[in-house]
Amino acid sequence: MGKVTESKKIESCAHLNYNAIVENNPKQPEYKAWDLALNLGFIIVIPIVLFALAGRFADKYFNSSPWFLLVGILVSIIVTTILVYRKIKTII
Fold first, then answer.
1. Mean pLDDT across the chain, nearest whole number?
2. How far apart are CA 50 and CA 7, in angstroms?
3. Which one, of 41, 75, 82, lies nearest residue 55 by Cα?
4. Residues 6+ apart with CB under 8 A from 72
5. Are 55 and 61 in contact (CB under 8 A)?
6. How distant, in Å, are the alpha carbons of 18, 38, 46, 47 from that of 90?
7. 28-83 per-position pLDDT tens digit
8. Cα 59 to Cα 70: distance, rounded to the nearest angstrom
9. 63: alpha, beta or left, given left = phi > 0 and alpha = psi -120 to 50?
10. Whole-model pTM?
């Protein structure tokens, strides 16, 4: 057909080498697993801590212990469930 220029050969080789490195890198799935674990950890912990602390402060302010704390924990469970579902949905 046409001539293959030297730059096209280099681009082709670079593309093949990059794919070979990514596909043959045994640590790649491990990093993805650690990344997922770290993300899920933050997704679970942050809402629980924030809503529980907000509930605790509301209980002290309104002198209604432990009702706002329990509501905060319940809301955090709902929020965490939704966030984890969205994260897993993007993976699957």
1. 80
2. 55
3. 75
4. 51, 52, 53, 54, 55, 56, 58
5. no
6. 25, 16, 20, 20
7. 677 788 888 999 999 999 999 999 999 999 999 999 989 999 999 999 999 999 99
8. 10
9. left
10. 0.64
Q: How do residues 26-43 score in pLDDT, each as one tens digit?
A: 556 777 888 889 999 999
What are the sequence ranges of the domains in the chain? Answer: 26-91
* Residue 80 tokens, joined: 């965490």
Contact yes or no for 48/39 (Cβ under 8 A): no
- Copy the structure tokens of residue 61: 């302010």
CB under 8 Å, gap of 24 or more: what pairs does 58-62 form?
Answer: none
Q: 2's torsion region: left (phi>0), alpha (psi -120 to 50) or beta?
A: beta
